Amino acid sequence: MNDIMCIVDKPIAYSEKSYYLNNRAPLKSLPFMKLPIGHIKPRGWLGKQLDFMLDGVTGRLPEFGKFFEYRNNGWLHPEVDSGWEEVPYWFRGFYSLAAITEDARCLDICRQYIDAMISGQDEDGYFGPKYLKSAKGKNGQVVCDLFPHMVILSAFIEHFEYTGDPRILPFLNRFFRFCSGIPDEMFIPLSTEGNLGWGGKAFGSMRPFVQSVRAGEMLPHLFWYYNQTGDSKALDLARRFFKHIRPPWDEWLDHHAVNFAQRYAYSGIYSQLSQLNYHMDQTEYWYNQHMSTWGQMPRGIFGADERIRPGCVDPRQAFETCGMVEFARNFYMLGRINGNAKYADQCEDIMLNHFPAAYTPDQKALHYLTAANMPQLDVSFHHHFRNGDERSNKSCLAYTPFNRCCGHNAGMGWPWYAQNLWQATSDKGLASWLYAECEVSAKVGYDDADVKLYVDTHYPFKGNVNITLEMDKDTQFPLYLRIPGWCTSFTVYLNGNEVCKQTEKSKFLLMNRLWRHGDQIQIKMEMKTSVTQWPRNGSITVDRGPLSYSIKIEEEWRKHLDIGHDPYRGTAEWPNWEVLPKTPWNYGLVLDRNNIEESVTVNEKERMEEQPWTVEGAPVEIKVKAKRIPNWTLQDETVDELQNSPIRSEEPEEEISMIPLGCARLRMSCLPMIDDSEEANEWQKAAPHIEFAKRSKNRFDIIEPVVNDKKQEDV
Known about the structure:
This is Transcriptional initiation protein Tat. The protein is of the alpha+beta class. The protein has a domain at about 545-685. Helix content is about 30%, strand content about 20%. The longest helix is centred in the middle third of the chain and has 18 residues, at about 275-295.
């Protein structure tokens, strides 16, 4: 076969037999396939995050987490009348962490859980806490709550990939048979209130009705099982789950941040079975509609401190950590289904700019909410967030090891990112999907050849990537290199010779050739400094490569053993933390927008710190001119909203430092433009709190939908 080198939008999805799990007919063939867990070993800064996790919240939760005590853990002890989503959330990330790191302690815990759930399976196929099998409400309604099972099944699939355990497929067969037999009145039901939210008031709990907005979580498991076994009943069950997903709440698909991050992708995932193009288009529609309104802030998060709220679109509105990892999980799946490089761009946006700041550097605590503009992380309950108050007993900004949902769910963040650095392709090749230092082992080509790739890079802080191939014999296979959406110059060298220079974005360079042991690929991606201007208020964000930048704010860390009542009461070993600013943050930028490169100075450190995601360890700093805005202050411990740029400031011009957004736990990244033109505005002092309270009254919480052609009364 002749050598081929060209730019492609995506690999072709072939239906022929692959080395890795592709879709069987009638499911749509995939251009990308996930490499089984263990085939990618992260190194460098990413590998170090997993090391931190082993001794951090994810790795140690069973030792101190309240949901792991015997009386609360129905996943180990099914007869215990407790246990819901917390342990499943934790276990799916924990299993990935254990398998990738091959940590003996963690693998032993994984075996205990897998063995307990398999041995505790009922004859009818149900497993897990017995009370979820037929949960009875105060109103007499009986529901089978399957949502936690939708979560924990990911770990069973990874266990099969990692060990080949022969018990897993029969175990899943029995469970899916149980799901098929659940009576209609108990299967993903609406609450008796009939509203389009979670409901559950008459039942006495909203928990059994969460599954109605998240029923699409079962689809990937059913498709995986069908691809392993060819059992068509799995596809019938997938159709049943898909048809039970609740409709959009109104003009918005969903008001809840995590609901949206999960369910916007369901149509696209289901398109594998439906073969209807509009199902993938529908996923794109919901995403674009939502982000264009609520996403006026850098790198893929949107304003929803648990829920979107009318008028709350400023970048001070924070995004839930659960939503970050759920978004990333869907980007992986949609990328494999659709093949479009933009999903990798979207994944990098969130995971490299926001997710690192959601944790303390040692991974021993995390917080619930992260915003693009957030100069103070304190234990106050008085922030302008929907879900941070004394009633809910939540301080949403302080770091705590005891966060209920995010503390369990976010554990899949770095392990799943590591698993998706490379993808297998249906033409028996490999694709570099996300760039990070790692080792990859895979089968490629048409002669059953084994190849190892060693990736050396300081990405995302620098744009150079070196790939070395090792193999026992010369092998022809296609290798795809992703050209990121931010990249304006993508140059590739093969064994020292330039072979490609491209300016196209969000595509792939296909290199199909006879590869030899020791071949080396060098990628050079030029990282230019640029700005994004937000049309809502004219503020700007400084960007460089895949990263956006924040004002460098020196941090003061304060330890707190108590930020409320249980479960937020810390210990000496597992304290809570607040982080307060030691340096000013209320700056606007003085930039020549027509000549950004000349307006800034970029300083790269020669040495990468063991933990680069900190203020002190930031591998890159950008120097820029700025002026203080004295009237820009905190209001009830929350940064005041942005006002329309440009802003006039009489303060002296200063040179300030900016660092990557993921390094900044105290962060200001959407900043006013400063000038003294006739268009410049004076910054007005913050309005009284009562004005904000009136405006933020949440119509999404109080308006009920039409039921039986009659509008319910507003609460």
